[in-house]
Specification:
Helices cover 23% and strands 48% of the residues. It has one helix at 89-115; strands at residues 7-10, 14-22, 26-30, 36-45, 48-62, 69-82. The N and C termini lie far apart (38 Å).
Length: 119
């Protein structure tokens, strides 16, 4: 079963990402300008399943040492790793919801601290 094509995401405004690759266990999506890309992949092993959801963003920024404008890549991803049995889809969603809630509570307070280097 495939995800919608195109995918919709909001990052500095609404964006539409068209599927450009679908090889069965992995799909890749990108915007028409190529500045935003998403990947969804599944890896099945003897001990379980790993699911990756990744978002990549390319932007132009000034190098702080030379002031030269350069393309830079930033990424964020989520990985679900579970044994082949024991955790239902609902369990996995509850785990993600709990993590997301912790990171984004109080206007992203914990996420802001983590991205600032705290651990």
């Amino acid at each position: 079963m495939a995800l919608p094509d195109p995918l919709s995401i909001t990052l500095n405004g609404a964006k539409s990402l068209a599927r450009i690759i679908d090889d069965g266990l992995k799909s890749q999506y990108t915007t028409a300008d190529g500045l935003l890309a998403a990947q969804v992949s599944h890896q099945v092993t003897s001990s379980g399943r790993k699911t990756l959801v990744r978002l990549d963003e390319i932007k132009t920024a000034a190098d702080p040492l030379t002031a030269v404008q350069k393309s830079v890549l930033g990424s964020a991803w989520i990985v679900f790793q579970d044994p082949t049995w024991g955790f239902s889809t609902a369990d996995k969603i509850a785990r993600y919801t709990a993590l997301n809630g912790m990171l984004t509570a109080s206007t992203n307070a914990i996420l802001t601290r983590i991205l600032g280097g705290e651990h």
